[in-house]
Amino acid sequence: MRFRLRYFALLPLAALAAACGDDPLRAGVFRLDGTWVGRSFPYELSLSFEHDDENRVTGSGELRGLAVRTSNAFTDTIVSTRAEVSVEGQWDYPEYVLRLEGEGYHPVTMETRQAQRDTMNAVLRGSGFEDVQIRLVRQTRSD
Question: What is the pTM of this model?
Answer without folding.
Answer: 0.76
